[in-house]
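User: Need the bound-state model for acetamide:
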Amino acid sequence: MILLTRTSALKAYHLTVTPERIDIQAAQPAGLFYGIQTLLQLLPVEIFQATPATNVTWTVPCLTIEDHPRFTWRGMHLDTGRHFMPKAFIKKYIDLLALHKFNRFHWHLTEDQGWRIEIKQYPKLTEVGAWRKETLIGHAGENPARYDGQRHGGFYTQDDIRDIVAYARERFVTVMPEIEMPGHSQAAIAAYPELGVTDKSLEAWTQWGVSDNILNADEATITFYQNILTEVMVLFDSEFIHIGGDEAPKKQWQASDAVQTRIKELGLANEHELQSWFIKQMDRFLADHDRRLVGWDEILEGGLAPGATVMSWRGEAGGIAAAQAGHDVIMTPTSHTYLDYYQADPQHEPLAIGGFLPLEKVYSYDPVPTALTEEQARHILGVQGQVWTEYIPTPEHAEYMAFPRACALAEVAWTPVKQKNFTDFQQRLRQHVQRLAHLNVNFRPLD
Ligand code: ACM
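Assistant: Bound-state model below.
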């Protein structure tokens, strides 16, 4: 007999296995769900087969577990802008997140290279912006550049999104959308040239890197993006909405008389303050709708918007500064959480963006910087793994990059530091990858 009970005063769940019965108690439905995930992991790995074996005895050891997560934000990100990923894969990814007790899916939906979310008021965003005529072959550093000549694209309809958000909610995963602004917006400018700074006609970008093309800061552009956010807020129930804010080159703003006039008109000192002003318009708009803005750490430059939560990706300095200023922070540093980096010797790995982030380094991460006081450390909501897809064209490849490193990150997000032990993790991982194999996950084989 398996008994699931709601009880108050439990931080997550309490699992007891006796010869008579299995008891899972939790204050919240999510806690019961996590208790069940743990129970599944106590059963033989064959429980994860699509058609469970009949020649296996389903036994669970007698035990008592009291468990709760270290962080409230246990996230995984996926970039569907650089490469469109089919809806079925998004669901599989969410399943895998839930299995590892992650509770946030950060869905990167817009990029220079593709706009992936249907917006009813602005249909050209997907009619035009969801498609690029070809894609770079090999690494962006190669000279001369070569292209595949293949049209690439796709987008999620609003029905797709509602379906995915509901699917995730059933698994206690909140989906946070990211709509990039003012940089990483070439596909949007290609669809609606009036959003841009120059008169140059644009297409969705076919290269990797940081495009110079950036949104202007006209009132009409602010309204356009707030209208997008209005549709986004209907589709997504996440309190947090990500507005990007990273890698917004100021070159076009510096060169444009119209933008320079706008900067003076607004009484701002420079382009950094204009970026900050832009983000503040979104911060206020989201706050007026009871949502909270999240941005990459560049949003600190030129002054942080009052309600902003920061994703600290260029190391931890941005996160430390934000937490010291009383803002919430999610730790996402390239050094420990960029799962698009090589996980082993590049000579024997598929082409990746660069970097080097082996499993053990992910596992070793502590998202709370020692520079913070206890009070400031409370602003560290948690940690998140990033899967940027410039060099990850398929779901199988995304699985290869994410797993097993996401398994290590799951423990970073859940387990108290004093209980972490890499040797022990490695042993458990040998068994755990058998579960992933049963789930048809193309994980990178263990060394
Ligand atoms: C980022 O990697 N540009 C957030």
